[in-house]
Amino acid sequence: MRNIIDPDIAEGTTEFPIPVINDVDEEEVDTRFKYVVANVDDIEYSLEDLTGCDCEGECVPGSCACIDASNIEIEDYRIKNASELHNRFEKYELYECGRDICKCKGKCRNRLTPDKFNIKVELVKQKDKGFGVLSKQFIETGTFVAEFVGELLFVIEANIRQNPSEYSFFVSNLHTFKKNSGHYVDPTRFGNIARFFNHSCLPNLTPFRYYSNHRRLDRVSMGFVAWRTIVPGAEITIDYGSKWWTTNVKQSHNFFCRCEWDYCGYPPPGAPQLTIEESKKKAVQIIKDDLEKLMLYKKLCRKHLTGTFNLK
C-alpha cells in the first residue's frame, strides 16, 4: 500500500490528479506556495501585444505571421526539431497561434501547448534526492510537458529577495541590446509541477522559449519539451545549468549531484564515473532502448485495437 500524503497537489487544475507519495520517511512536501497554472504578472498588455496572426483559413508558412516568426517547427502537435533545442535555449523561439489573439483561434497546425497540464505523473519522495516527478506514461520526443510558471520579476525585484536564484530561472530578452535585460520566473510563492523537476546531468527535458497568449517580447514564456523518449516510471528531469551548480557548490562543500548518471558534473566522493566517450555511447544506447520500448508499446496497442492481441 503506497503512502499517499496528498491525492492531488494541483487541486484539480490539471487534466489528471498529481498525487504526492512518500514511502521513504515522514517528510512532507513543500506546501509554502500556491499552485497556479499561469504566470503571476502585474504588467499591462497593449492591443499590439495581444494581436496575433490574421489567418482566415489554415495557418501555413509564408502567410501566417506566427509560423514565419518562429524557428521551431510543429508537426502533429509536437516539436519536430526538439533534439536541436537541447542546450540551445537562446537560439530558438516559438510563436504559437493563440486562442484569444489570433483569428484562427489556435485551431490550426501551429499549436503546441494544451489547455491544461495533461501528462500523467506522480510526485514521489526518493531516497537522497527529495521529491521528484515520475512519469506514469510514455512521453514522445517533441512533446510539450510543462511551462515553468511563477512570479515574473524584473532583475531589481529578484535581487531584493533572498536567494533569488535558488528556485528561479532567468529568461533574457533577445530583442534588445540592453545588458541584463529580461526577467526571472520565480516559483517560490506561486508555481506548478515544474518547480519540482529535479536536475540530471542526462536530463530528458530541455527548455525552450515561446509566445502563446501575447506577443510582448520582454515577457517570453519558458516551456519544457521532451528531447528524447521518456518511459513510464522514469523521473522527469532538467539541467539546472553550470551557474546554478557553481553558486551552490561554493556555498557548501558537501553539496553534490544525486542524478546517478555515470558522467556526472558534480558526483559524490567515490562515485564511479565513465569517460566522456563511454558516457556518450551509454547515452545513445539509453535513448535507443527507450525509443524501442515506445515502438513496442505502440505496436501492442495497434494489435489490441485491431483485435489481434490477446491480453490474457
UniProtKB/TrEMBL annotation:
CC terms in the record's Gene Ontology section: chromatin; nucleus
Keywords: Chromosome, Methyltransferase, S-adenosyl-L-methionine, Transferase
SMART domains from the UniProt entry: PreSET, SET
InterPro entries in alphabetical order: EHMT1/EHMT2, Pre-SET_dom, SET_dom, SET_dom_sf
One biological process term in Gene Ontology: negative regulation of transcription by RNA polymerase II
Localization annotation: Chromosome
Gene3D superfamilies on file: SET domain
Signal peptide: none
Every SET domain range: 119-241
A Pfam entry, by short name: Pre-SET
Gene Ontology terms, MF aspect: histone H3K9 methyltransferase activity; p53 binding; zinc ion binding
The protein, known as: SET domain-containing protein
